[in-house]
């Protein structure tokens, strides 16, 4: 019987003298899952659960992507269409959604151009019914006799608040704009709006209006309010006005102008997604419960073992031995389950909220990270541990190498940006320089990098050549070879450590206690009986 008269531990140790039950428990506790199933000859329920959970998380991510991508494509199409409709000289060179993306900035240089572009926006808005192909309508138009008025906002000073008003535009004004877009200056004057006062010019103005757009897919039809903003930015005072357009989508009920028959309620696919979400949340809660239970069991077993060793050897478990009872991976599983639950709850709420790119990105990151953790957890159950152990062993050396490479990479980055930046678009900014160098690491065409460098300076051309070749040699051939060598060394060390695990120099009090277990128990025909739940602590 253990000293101290502990009532919570003593009843558990039925073999009070030898502690065979504790030794069997420790032996079983440190086995990998596959060996546990082989020893108990039981159905691998946890493995099946892990496989089901992995399939559910992967299915959730696939379904979310299938929902998200059409919505993003729809938002991109709406944005592109409105750019073409409301920006006067918009073309593919300005289109950021084209491939390769357009980098031409939409700028105006004269007052007449500013007025013409403002007039074009107003005219396009009032001609919407005549020009649209049936996908857009005025928002809330059914409750109004006339076309809803546009809002004109301006910010006169840097720290001043914006001033907004509705533009009063008559049918006669629209007719005048059809013949002369500059007539918008008179329209603004009637509305007491002045963009230019002598040499003084506006700082930043924008037009705001709302449209209704229809999104029809194979399964359902949805409508959205498209809140549109057309900006004219002169805040830099560099004699250039930057013109841009942005939209904000919000789900609404479709009006009769766009669709005559509206499908009410949730569609079958929506119900299937909701059912899958609920099942996944329930599985994650169950997984969290299992992980928390395992953590608590490990702490309890550590306390019992520590008391047993103290009663026998008058010493306590070492800190390293105590850590062996605490599986950090269970904490990772709990955090991962929380991520999945949070991502699933956000996903359930996305259908009823405004189109929010940040929420979509957050949900995809939660579910994407969860897939990796679930996959690694499955590998852990399938005892593919040598690779994981090797990764932990070489991580210190890799971190040292990354620190060294990071310092060297920073030197290349700053040198390339400072020296080559003014002469090559690939090095104009620190961000572009970093992307260019990473592209070179991944096999990007070096010739394209050389071509973008201006050849007016022979010295610069020689430097850029030496710069690129040196970077490629150091980071591809040298660094990559070092990483491979570190991993191979860690792998061989892992195998050697496992082969030398039973050497006396590496044994701790905990190891020796586990080895004291009666090995005849394992060879017994009824060995599974000794490792049933009621035979262990």
From TrEMBL:
Question: Which positions fall inside the Mucolipin extracytosolic domain?
Answer: 83-248
Keyword Transmembrane helix set for record: yes
Q: Which UniProt keywords apply?
A: Membrane, Transmembrane, Transmembrane helix
**Is the keyword Membrane in the record?**
yes
| InterPro entries for this protein | MCLN_ECD (IPR049134), Mucolipin (IPR039031)
Checking PANTHER family in the record gives: MUCOLIPIN, SD02261P
Protein name per UniProt: Mucolipin extracytosolic domain-containing protein
- What's the source species for this entry? Steinernema carpocapsae (Entomopathogenic nematode)
């Amino acid at each position: 019987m253990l000293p101290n008269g502990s009532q919570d531990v003593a009843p558990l140790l039925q073999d009070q003298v030898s502690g065979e039950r504790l030794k069997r428990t420790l032996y079983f506790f440190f086995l990998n899952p596959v060996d546990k199933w082989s020893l108990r000859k039981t159905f691998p329920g946890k493995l099946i659960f892990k496989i089901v959970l992995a399939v559910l998380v992967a299915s959730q991510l696939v379904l979310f992507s299938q929902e998200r991508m059409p919505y993003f494509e729809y938002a991109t199409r709406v944005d592109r269409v409105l750019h073409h409709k409301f920006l006067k000289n918009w073309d593919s060179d300005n289109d950021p959604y084209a491939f390769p993306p357009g980098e031409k900035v939409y700028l105006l240089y004269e007052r007449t151009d500013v007025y013409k572009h403002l007039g074009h926006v107003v005219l396009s808005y009032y001609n919407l019914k005549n020009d649209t192909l049936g996908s857009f309508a005025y928002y809330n138009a059914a409750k109004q006799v006339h076309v809803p008025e546009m809002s004109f906002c301006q910010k006169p000073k840097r720290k001043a608040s914006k001033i907004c008003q509705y533009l009063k535009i008559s049918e006669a004004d629209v007719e005048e704009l059809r013949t002369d877009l500059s007539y918008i200056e008179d329209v603004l004057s009637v509305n007491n709006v002045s963009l230019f006062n002598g040499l003084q010019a506006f700082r930043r103005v924008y037009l705001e209006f709302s449209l209704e757009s229809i999104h029809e897919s194979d399964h359902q039809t949805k409508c959205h309010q498209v809140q549109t903003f057309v900006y004219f930015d002169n805040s830099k005072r560099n004699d250039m006005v930057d013109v841009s357009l942005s939209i904000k989508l919000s789900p609404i009920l479709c009006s009769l102008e766009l669709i005559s028959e509206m499908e009410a309620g949730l569609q079958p696919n929506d119900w299937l997604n909701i059912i899958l979400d609920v099942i996944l949340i329930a599985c994650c809660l169950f997984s969290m419960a299992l992980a928390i239970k395992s953590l608590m069991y490990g702490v309890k077993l550590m306390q019992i073992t520590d008391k047993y060793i103290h009663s026998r050897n008058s010493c306590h478990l070492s800190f390293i031995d105590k850590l062996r009872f605490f599986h950090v991976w269970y904490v990772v599983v709990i955090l991962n389950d929380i991520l999945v639950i949070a991502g699933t709850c956000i996903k359930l709420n996305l259908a009823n909220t405004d189109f929010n790119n940040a929420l979509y990105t957050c949900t995809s990151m939660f579910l994407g990270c969860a897939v990796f953790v679930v996959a690694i957890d499955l590998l852990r159950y399938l005892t593919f541990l040598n690779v994981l152990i090797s990764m932990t062993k070489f991580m210190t050396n890799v971190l040292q190498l990354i620190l060294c490479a990071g310092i060297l990479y920073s030197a290349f980055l700053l040198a390339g940006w400072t020296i080559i930046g003014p002469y090559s678009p690939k090095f104009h900014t620190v961000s572009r320089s970093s992307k260019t160098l990473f592209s070179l690491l991944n096999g990007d065409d070096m010739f394209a990098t050389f071509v973008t460098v201006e050849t007016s300076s022979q010295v610069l051309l020689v430097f850029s050549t030496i710069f690129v070749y040196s970077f490629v040699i150091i980071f591809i051939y040298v660094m990559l070879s070092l990483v491979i060598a570190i991993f191979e060394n860690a792998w061989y060390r892992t195998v050697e450590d496992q082969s030398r695990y039973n050497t006396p120099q590496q044994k701790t009090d905990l190891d020796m206690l586990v080895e004291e277990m009666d090995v005849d128990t394992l060879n017994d025909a009824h060995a599974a009986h000794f490792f049933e739940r009621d035979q262990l602590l």
